[in-house]
Amino acid sequence: MPAEWAPQSAVMLTWPHPGTDWADILAEVEPVFLDIARATLRFENVLISCEHVARLQELERDLNDFALRNELPGRVIAVPAPADDTWARDHGPLAVQRDGQLELLDFRFNAWGGKFDWQKDNALNQRIADTGAFGATPLVPVDFVLEGGSIESDGAGTILTTSECLLTPTRNPTLDRTAIENMLRETLGAEQVHWLNHGYLAGDDTDSHIDTLARFCQRDHIAYVRCTNPDDEHYGAFRAMEEELQQFRQADGSPYRLTALPWPDAIHDEEGQRLPATYANFLIINGAVLLPVYDVPQDTEAEQILAGIFPDREIICINCRPLIGQHGSLHCVTMQIPEGVVQP
């Protein structure tokens, strides 16, 4: 499985519409999706699917006009398709290189163990493939529940994940840890699997997706969230997670370089529930990193740290405060598609 920093042809977005849980705050959340799309078009294509055809046609016209006016390299590929929600990271396809050829794997999606409606999202990749948007790259169905946000790949055979998520019985109830590791070997070419047994995010519906906690930045480098406030509910779990990361070893036996990301001030919804704000939910694209920010003091520090981690990429901050109202963030609503797949 390629690393996220491998060359990309497009970023996939599943657009919010009035039939999703975003209905009451579409006016707030659509600008976030537009910011992500416009930032991405500066570097690569954007593949948008939307259930509402009229809105999709507007997006295709307006965003392509924006790209042409600004002489940007990216273009919008628009696909009409039904969707239950917008979390492309988890229902989108996962790419692998097999015998020198790219494949897009269509794992089963059941909305994080049946928490929400999922049938439309589970069918979405095939609907997109049927339009020809993935070109000649085959879409291969896999009878295994796996979300893109639950795994991190270093591009060289190591997968980083969490036991809380992959071992949840509502996903693959007949499989234990050994069987799941075997499945990751067979499908993603995993030669080594690092399991985090600690770390969680309040307000998160995913059972501790790795992309909210710890991320590969290079093969030897992991960025992770750290909480320094002993009174914060995350403090103990994050300290235990940090100790686990310190014990992990690369394939050659050497430890990883570790960089701590700041922990944002607590953000709550109108009912007092803490929302899952995390700086680990960034997206690496060609030439840039899109960083979610939340209008809190730690935003500036997070930007500075990411700039140090990725000195050759532009850091583009996207205000994702509206996204966390539905318990996800920037990485959660995007899925990168490798170079050579999506052609305008």
TrEMBL record:
<protein>
    <submittedName>
        <fullName>Agmatine deiminase</fullName>
    </submittedName>
</protein>
<keyword id="KW-0378">Hydrolase</keyword>
<dbReference type="GO" id="GO:0004668">
    <property type="term" value="F:protein-arginine deiminase activity"/>
</dbReference>
<dbReference type="GO" id="GO:0009446">
    <property type="term" value="P:putrescine biosynthetic process"/>
</dbReference>
<dbReference type="GO" id="GO:0047632">
    <property type="term" value="F:agmatine deiminase activity"/>
</dbReference>
<dbReference type="Pfam" id="PF04371">
    <property type="entry name" value="PAD_porph"/>
</dbReference>
<dbReference type="InterPro" id="IPR007466">
    <property type="entry name" value="Peptidyl-Arg-deiminase_porph"/>
</dbReference>
